Amino acid sequence: MEADPAATLRAHGLSVTAQRLAVLRAVNRYPHGSAEVIADAVRADIGVVSRQAVYDALGVLTEKGVLRRIQPAGSPALFDPRSGDTHHHAICRACGAVVDVDCAPGQAPNLTEAAKSGFLIDEAEVLYWGKCPTCRQATAAAPPG
């Protein structure tokens, strides 16, 4: 996403509103945050705003390609400010932390098998599941019980 949220909105043909600017700032502060996390951050930033206004802004920003929406199994939708490239996500099974995982440099995602289905594949989304370093360390440090 561009450094200037107003310019980002205009570049995607969107009106610049206080709610949209606050949502963009919140998603940048809390990448991979849920709508609830984003709504709380928006309220802290600009005061009273309805949950529906935040959901509407997230929907429009996702539809226009400003944000990327991911929905891991068993999790609410999460919003990613990094929408203009192909990357994947690693998710901690213990704490739910989410981090970006870049594709291997120079490697296109292997879509050959999926293309055999007859689908015209235009995107691949990969979720890696495991334990983050913090949770691994906590598990290793915990006394046997």
Features:
Dna Ligase, domain 1; 145 residues; alpha+beta; 6 strands; single chain; Arc Repressor Mutant, subunit A; three-stranded antiparallel β-sheet; flat
Short description:
The protein is 39% helix and 16% strand. The protein contains 6 helices and 6 strands, in the order ααβααββββαβα.
Architecture overview:
The chain is an alpha+beta fold. It folds into 2 domains: 5-70, Winged helix-like DNA-binding domain superfamily/Winged helix DNA-binding domain (Arc Repressor Mutant, subunit A), CATH 1.10.10; 85-141, Dna Ligase, domain 1 (2-Layer Sandwich). The protein is 39% helix and 16% strand. The protein has 6 helices and 6 strands, in the order ααβααββββαβα. A 3-stranded antiparallel beta sheet has the order 1-3-2. A 3-stranded mixed beta sheet has the order 5-4-6, with no helix packed on it. The longest helix has 13 residues, at 51-63. The protein is flat. The model has no long low-confidence stretch (mean pLDDT 89).
Question: Which helices and strands appear, and what pairs or packs with what?
Answer:
Elements: H1 5-11, H2 18-29, E1 33-34, H3 35-46, H4 51-63, E2 68-70, E3 78-80, E4 87-92, E5 98-102, H5 112-115, E6 127-130, H6 133-141
Parallel strand pairs: 4-6
Antiparallel strand pairs: 1-3, 2-3, 4-5
Helix pairs in contact: 2-3, 3-4
